[in-house]
Give the backbone structure.
Amino acid sequence: MSTENELFSAVDALLEQVAQDDLPDPAERKRLREAAGLSQAQIATALGARREAVGNWEIGKTEPRPPKRAAYARLLEGLAARFPTPAVDAPASAPAPVVPEAFTGPVPAPAAVPPSRPKAEAASTTKPSATSRRPGAKKAVAKTTTAAAGPVDPRFENGPLAVIAADADGQVSAYCVGGLVLDVPAKTIPALVDWTLTEGRLGQARLHRNGRDADPILVLTPSALERFGLPAALSEQERHAGRLPSGHKVVKQIEKAGLQMSQRGFGPWARVFREPEGSRRRCVQLCILPWNALEAREWDEKDNPQLPTMHPADLVQYLGLYAARVITPRGSTATTGLELMTALRPPTRAQKDEATGEFKPAFNDDAITAKYEVVPCEVPDEHPILKDAGFARHHLRTPAEMLMEEPYDWCRPLTDEECANPYLVVVDINMSFAAAANGLTVGLNGPTHLENHPAFDPALPGSWLVDLSHVDLSRVRINGRTVDGSRLPSPFTPKGDHPTGPAWYATPTVQYAVELGFDVAPIEAYVRTQTGRYLDSWYKRLRDAYVETMADMGVTTDLQGEEFLEAMARRKQVDPTMRLLETAIKATAKGAIGKLRQRSRGQVPYYEPYPALERWTWRPDIRAAVLANQRTGLHRKLMKTAAAADLYPVAIGTDAIVYPSSGPSPLDVLPQTPEGKPLPGGFRLGVSPGMVKHQGTQTVLWAEAQFEERGDVFNISNLIKTADPTAGEGE
């Protein structure tokens, strides 16, 4: 039995909770701030919050959470005492730009402020039916329509997803974005799915008018698994199969309820649905957190995972913000990135038949609309098309047999002059694969085979068999100067080796040879005649998401030089959730490009069809074009830097470039103009995709020790990094 002191403590805690909820309405919050002559930024600084969060509190999009809520209430109470609500006929008090004494410094706030809800997904006050809001849970704020937020879609007023958890008494709760917590009456998985479809009001509106709305996502926590009769972890056999066995009781419950599942079955990402009603999908995706649905190296910190112990309210804010800025998660970040491509470039649209008046599907000209034939030189070794190619077992295809467009993995020994420098500084290109996709023309239809030495046409994306062994970088003049070609990698091979004969190259690589001033004479080619900048909108969506997330951590696009470097170092301590979001966005960009040529995962024997080949977006030619553009774009900057400053790299790993330096900072090595500006066409410090950041610094003596221990020179680019867990992983 509880003691009297324990009961009094419980009552005091309850009273404190009630007091914290006692905030004026959003309009009054804004009036009090303006009456005091304070800006949203000043209040955000005092509370340790973001300016956008304060703005959301003032329009009712979100509510502050403890401990910021109590501090915000105290501030408003102090302002209300100084600036009472004016009488109807009386003028408002004159502004007094004085912050109350209690708020002269920032309030300690270890918890992150809940991010604002997506534009079309602000929570609204609705009258619940079978669903109720748990006593003590935050109330849904009033529905708001503003010029900034746009109208609320009532179908998805509770956001794109929810995190499902259960308490000790078995009560199931759905944590939604914006601090909303809903009681869920479901006692089984089928009931949970039906609740989501009928009452949950979860999902995300389409990103393109010809696309489709995103299915709601339910993230199941360990307590939810226990409540619904699911195992806390999959057995080794179940992990290998990727699903629960068909005889499991939950699978039988789903079948008995008339629900269906995809061919993947009930695994870490389970899709459960009922037959569509007309054009309306009735599908729910279950993301089972304890079954590694959100893999740590993509969604978390791989060396210090946060998600397994993250509170549901914090987890839903993280995933909800990802959904708002990128798209609702669909599986791995790679899968989600690929889904983003088709969401922004849907293959079909509704077109009215003038004869019948009915709407029928029609293909979009700027999208991939079918699964086309593949080209032998573009596919990986295990592809079925190579089964009858006559290659011996374990044959390694040569560049004349296979398109080998990959990022750099190159290194060379330091010269005696370079060894005189004390440091090796590594700069890393921000989201290099995404940046390489920007403005890139790719093929949208199937291949056309050009034979008998066709003329090279840079407007035709595809693969060209051409001999580039005559290209000599030392003969290239840049602004009247030449470079030392022996200290630069070849732009035509991932290892930086000089080509020795005919090889297959993607269009951007051949185009770069022409740009350097050399003649090219293709032997044959496979090109695409229907072209477009398919990845532009995909790049812009990810760029905006990345830049906005970095700005939330204090790294803005206007920062340069030392200010930028300091902000990048500080960002790790600003907001742990934003750091996870940064990692997820970069993994989305990188993984999606790789998934365009997804290889077999051992599901089937060599030369047998595997599931990825059924996708319309299995397009190895587009992946090759992006990687070729990334590598040649990097080389272009290497050439301009070498010509202008006689500065040469000693190693490159994907997008991490190692330079000898007299000092430990990138500012000590990256050349500038006499006016102190970054070298035009060279590497520039900054947060935008395509610019560079500091990855790490080591001494030349350290590198020599590594070479001596290894017995040879090897690529040290990704061994030189700061504590940043995402540095040097080929963004």
Residues 338 and 478 are 38 Å apart (CA to CA). Confidence is low (pLDDT under 50) at residues 13-20, 88-132, 134-150, 725-730. Residues 620-645 form the longest helix (26 residues).
